[in-house]
Write a structure and sequence with these properties.
With about 425 residues, this protein is an alpha/beta fold. It has two domains: about 140 residues, no CATH class; about 230 residues, Alpha/Beta hydrolase fold, catalytic domain (Rossmann fold), CATH 3.40.50. Helices cover about 45% and strands about 10% of the residues. The strands form two sheets. It has an eight-stranded mixed β-sheet, with helices on both faces. It has a two-stranded antiparallel ribbon with strand order 3-4. The longest helix is centred in the N-terminal third of the chain and has 20 residues. The protein is globular. It holds the Pfam family Abhydrolase_1. GO terms for molecular function: hydrolase activity.
Length: about 425
């Protein structure tokens, strides 16, 4: 979007809001604002243009229903488990074990009087307003190859609402998410080597875990992958908007989010009623390439739409205070993959380059024509580099075959 068009949209949005307020149209305006804030689930900011829609509303609705009923993405399930955070929040996770032919997953066996080493466990942490299913392609590819754990961050997916936030009104912090990850590791992978994989907020969660539990990183973590994430300075991101628009958004957004969170029921109705209008915005801030499978686009929409507005409001302030630059030093002595989409507007690739600059031995992969949800948009690249990382860490035997990871091409079949 050009600077002039963005400014025009921002001005038009302000005019509409002003007119609605003057005419007592708060309910309608709140619904639209709620839908716009829903876009923040992918890390977007307000004031972006809505692409012109040429297909009738009824046809679009039917298409969405068809994609919801037939789309295979997010359908993979593992052995369920529950962990409990230090404030009592119930955290849901699933384990995909490596099962040999004709038998269950192996337990630790004794070899010549000694216990055989436990297999490596790869723990995946998802991003803001997504859930564990966002790793669909990578999960499908690694099934049967390595033991994996996928979990839902508090207040996301199948995990419970943050107890401290609901009961005590305690502000959420990225440090809390790091402690949540520790609880999941303790429950799902209490011993043995670990590989940590985090996307966006999930990468920040990994950094927060390291900052608070350096001994765990030193003793058990054998490799780390940080995808489309940042170690700090998130307040400087402009989301592809002109400076004036960004500054305006930063001034009003905290108050707007708080107000919307207090009107959650009303806002959710507005989000549902206007969801179609914002599909283009969600696409803009999730993907960069044109040829993305519509079912994948719809899959991303569903994850974002499923996050309640009060959860969006609850999490957003935590990013301002996030700074885990010092914690990155704990990953220096292990294989590290730093990967990002070149056209990511949410956590720009410059943030990944900054991380790699502090980890000179890390592999830095910048994916052209990729946005924030790079693991869904270009799964073949992410899975290939992740498989290589696991091989270097000894988690996957050299020469092992990683399963099909599919493609987001509109003409390809899902993996």
């Amino acid at each position: 979007m050009s600077e002039s068009s963005a400014e025009a949209v921002a001005s038009a949005t302000a005019a509409v809001a002003s007119a609605a307020a003057a005419s007592g149209g708060w309910r309608r305006t709140t619904g639209l604002a709620g839908a716009a804030i829903g876009v923040l689930a992918a890390g977007a900011a307000a004031g972006v243009a809505i692409e012109r829609m040429t297909v009738g509303r009824g046809m679009r609705r039917r298409a969405r229903l068809a994609l919801d009923s037939t789309g295979p993405y997010g359908a993979l399930r593992g052995t369920p488990g529950k962990a409990y955070a230090d404030d009592g929040t119930e955290l849901y996770y699933e384990v995909d074990d490596v099962e040999p032919e004709g038998g269950p997953a192996p337990r630790r066996r004794r070899l010549f009087g000694r216990k055989a080493p436990l297999p490596v466990t790869v723990v995946f942490s998802h991003g803001y307003c997504l859930n564990q299913d966002s790793w669909h392609f990578q999960r499908a590819a690694l099934r049967g190859v390595v033991r994996t754990v996928h979990w839902d961050q508090r207040s996301h997916g199948r995990s419970g609402r943050g107890a401290a936030q609901v009961d005590g009104g305690v502000p959420l912090t990225i440090d809390q998410l790091g402690r949540d990850l520790k609880a999941v590791v303790d429950a799902a992978a209490p011993d043995g080597p670990i590989v940590l994989v985090g996307h966006s907020m999930g990468g920040m969660t990994v950094m927060a875990l390291a900052a608070q539990y350096p001994e765990l990183i030193r003793d058990r973590v054998v490799a780390t992958a940080l995808v489309g994430t940042s170690s700090g300075r998130l307040g400087e991101i402009n989301f592809g908007l002109p400076v004036a628009g960004v500054n305006a958004v930063r001034r009003v957004l905290p108050g707007v989010l708080k107000a919307l969170g207090q009107q959650a029921e009303l806002v959710e109705k507005g989000r549902r009623a206007t969801a179609e209008l914002f599909a283009g915005i969600i696409k803009r801030y999730s993907f960069a390439s044109r040829d993305v499978d519509p079912a994948v686009e719809r899959f991303a929409e569903r994850m974002i739409e499923s996050t309640p507005i009060d959860v969006v409001a609850e999490f957003y302030p935590a990013f301002t205070d996030h700074d885990k630059t010092e914690a990155l030093g704990l990953f220096k002595d292990m294989p590290v993959l730093v990967l990002a989409g070149v056209r990511d507007l949410v956590t720009p690739s410059e943030h990944s380059e900054a991380i790699a600059g502090l980890l000179p031995d890390a592999e830095l992969v910048l994916v052209p024509d990729a946005g924030h949800l790079v693991m869904l948009e270009h799964p073949e690249v992410v899975t290939d580099r992740l498989a290589d990382l696991l091989t270097r860490a000894g988690a996957v035997p050299a020469g092992a075959t990683v399963g099909g990871y599919g493609s987001t091409s509109s003409t390809a079949q899902p993996g």
